[in-house]
Write a structure and sequence with these properties.
22% of the residues lie in helices and 14% in strands. The chain is of the alpha+beta class and 116 residues long. The longest helix has 11 residues, at 11-21.
């Protein structure tokens, strides 16, 4: 069951919180010091959850955000800049996984009922 602390009244409420964080570094956003620990792969997402959206970090398989009866999953990935001058581009620093596929259960799933 989704924790009530992760419920929002509208997508506009969530969007407003996220837009307020735009242009700030994760250090500027981090209210808990979570980003100070080295090697914490999920720390950027945890900073957004705790310090921007103000709900506790968890390891639930459920989607992070509940608006009405609809659940939304929060995904955060760092960016890196590569190249110089006109050839400079911004790319994802690491692969973003949307869902883990259980290949044993997949043949029995119906599209309408899949978690994804």
């Amino acid at each position: 069951m989704l924790n009530e602390e992760r419920s929002f009244s509208s997508l506009e409420e969530v969007t407003k919180l996220l837009i307020a964080a735009e242009g700030k570094t994760f250090r500027e956003l981090d209210e808990t010091g979570r980003g100070d620990s080295v090697g914490n792969k999920g720390s950027l997402g945890n900073i957004i959850e705790e310090s921007v959206l103000h709900y506790p970090v968890n390891s639930d398989a459920e989607a992070d955000i509940l608006v009405g009866n609809t659940r939304y999953e929060l995904k955060v990935t760092p960016l890196k800049h590569s190249g110089k001058g006109k050839r400079m581009k911004t790319v994802a620093k690491e692969r973003l996984v949307l869902d883990i596929i259980n290949y044993e259960d997949l043949p029995g799933e119906k599209f309408e009922d899949s978690r994804f």
